[in-house]
Model the fold of this input.
Amino acid sequence: MTKKMKNESGLLKAALQIIMDDAVKRGIVEFEATDTHNDKIEYAYRLLVHDKAITPLPANQLSMPAMRHRLAKWVTHKLPSDHKLLN
Done:
């Protein structure tokens, strides 16, 4: 199991915002009010894997907590170095 990062929930929220905004702009998805938070996390994870922006988790490690962590880790490389979530 991966150790939870400092500010992981905030980083996850930022990652989802970036990924979802990009997906909508690219016209590849429309989100519904009935889509769960976990649905969005899984979609975002799979989109980044598809775009080759992240390496996929091994099948035996694929879980919601692991996907959350992978998205949070990804966004740390997308935010400015002085962003409040990185401190």
